[in-house]
Amino acid sequence: MQSSEADPVLAEIANSVMTITLNRPDRGNGWTPMVADRYFELMELAARSPEVRVIVLTGSGSAFCVGGDSEKVQQNSAEATIQRTSKRNYWFPLRIGKPIIAAINGACFGIGLQQALCCDIRIASADAKFSTAYARRGLVAERGMSWLLPRLVGTGHAMDMLLSARLIRAEEAERIGLVNRVVPAENLLDESLSYARQLAERCSPRSMRAMKLQCYLDLMATLSESYERSEEMLDTAVKEGDFKEGIQSWQEKRPPMFPPLPAELALMDFSEKR
After folding, report:
1. Residue 41, in any domain of the structure
2. The total number of structural domains that make up the chain
């Protein structure tokens, strides 16, 4: 697969899963404004498409994303400059109302790591490696990294990764909770797609969206607020067709046939209460 500035991000749909591939392998899938805009466009397309129930993100070649493209950084004086040119906020993937699985196939640095953290599940190949990179470039924790990282790995591990910018190998990444699991490199995409298909085939799109919304809202809520919101959402869920289908399919010992997520629920608004 060869990279092209005209086609820096690829997408294909199969079995209700959209696979999005960062496609600049000769540059380690280095991030540019063109990559950002195309990537976010595809994310929104997946969110709104009735054909798509789950999204898998990966990189072409031997890297997931090495961070900001070094040539573009030099041209623009600082990595932060090129990243501010995107039309969308860099935590935009968190708003997608469908599960996003990062299949991390190699180097995952800087903005590449930030985007991996914006996915819901992270599956890494055994040769994946991670670094925040910022402290060794004279930068700061960018694009919400200082909010995302401590919530995944805890403050101690987050401070270690941010202050030292050291290399974290796949085994350590799994141990500290940075990734959900590690698989052999040759099995990465197959296992990621298999997991995605399980979600697409067995799980209610409405339920998955609702629980994504709950989890991200509850990161900023008290226990009582979380409890009250879950009660309100449960009252709604038991009246929906997905609940009836879930119970009926279980009783009839057959796969569920849940409808696609409605277009109006494609993107999540974190001011939502339901």
Report:
1. yes
2. 2
